Amino acid sequence: MTASSAGESGTATPLSYWQVFTSRNVPQLLLAASFSRLAGSMLLFAVVLYVIAEFGSASIAGLGAFFLTLPGFLVSPVAGAVLDRLGVVRAVVLDTLSSAVLISLVAVLSVLDTLRPPVLFALLTLYSLTSPLTSGGIRTLFPRFVPEAAYDKANALDLSTFSVIDVVGPLIAGTLVAWIGPDPTLLCVAVMYALASASIALLRESNAGADAPVRQHLLRAAGEGIVHLVRNPTLRGLAVSYSVYQAASGMLVVIVPVTVGRWLGDADATERYVGVLWAGAGLAGAIGALIAGKLVGAGRERSSMVAATLVGAVAIFPVSALGSLVTLGAGLALVGLTEGVVNVSLLSLRQRRTEPAWLGRIMTVSISVNLMGFPVGTLLGGLVVSHSVTAALALAAALAVGSAAFARFLIPREA
């Protein structure tokens, strides 16, 4: 029995991971997601390594990362309206194809020795402007191909692959740059985007009837998406809670390397150990997502978010603050495990309580809003950890507790 047939028959029989994975269009969608995310994960590191090797400037490398990420963040609400205007499948194909072309152009101009920083920044900006179409579009498509009861498992499959890619992407990028050089590595990234586009193009759209273009002024549609999120109690509560949760995550990104560096006093050893610690957290996140896919279901999303966030707070403080690499690693692994549960619960709840016609705009707007807490967290982490590691971890844990409280009291029990 496929997921689509389960949805049509209305049966309440839970689907296994294998049934969800083999459902109509789901393999192509997961393949496209994996290719595009691996390409994106590799690209940031490849660009930074390329700029340092080519121009020998850390400031230009920082600007490259800036233009690679910020423009897409700023236009995320408009990207949601574009998804509705073009149709999700067409919009994702457009983004992945244009990404392949732009990154190929960077590599070709570099080989020809005609790539200068202003041209590089312009190409990276163009890449960034369309990137929300894929990040929001793929998660908009999942609810179209599985029944509502299978949202949790579909999101768990999606998030578990994302967690693994988040670990291996930088490793692959660094290995390829060292082995074949920056320019061929960028071409490999472009090929991955082309493969992602081909995977999306293989979707059988008869199962995506909601993908009909909507004719509406883009800025007006983007504004309506923001207003809809603010007025919807569930979406508003999720935005507040998860933004605070991301602030705690942002603090950890700064706290962990500083803490390990102070304990070891060796820069090379610090880099190795920090990489291992975050790899462990990422793999634990994949496991947590798969566990959540089995345990979380309709009506249990909010309580799962609250419980997992509180456990994560304890993992941050006191577990991670006990003063050794072992306890820090155990704490981060537990944080990753609970983060998988939080993310599956959040995605499933958002999908269940958002009308299909709004899902594209809500996904892209939510990505933008949810990430607002992260840079705030990195700023707080840098300020507090310079005075006290223990205080910084305690504050990060307090933010996690605050996130759980917001989820408990701001998100309605029912739609």
Automatic annotation (TrEMBL):
It is found in: Cell membrane. SUPFAM superfamilies: MFS general substrate transporter. The chain crosses the membrane at residues 29-52, 58-79, 91-112, 118-138, 159-180, 186-203, 239-260, 272-293, 305-326, 332-350, 362-385, 391-411. One of its GO terms (molecular function) is transmembrane transporter activity. It holds the Pfam family MFS_1. It is a multi-pass membrane protein. Residues 234-415 form the Major facilitator superfamily (MFS) profile domain. Coiled coil: none annotated. InterPro entries: MFS (IPR011701), MFS_dom (IPR020846), MFS_trans_sf (IPR036259). One of its GO terms (cellular component) is plasma membrane. Its main location: membrane. The keyword Transmembrane helix applies. Keywords: Cell membrane, Membrane, Transmembrane, Transmembrane helix. PANTHER family: INTEGRAL MEMBRANE EFFLUX PROTEIN-RELATED (PTHR23513), STAPHYLOFERRIN A TRANSPORTER (PTHR23513:SF11). This is Major Facilitator Superfamily protein.
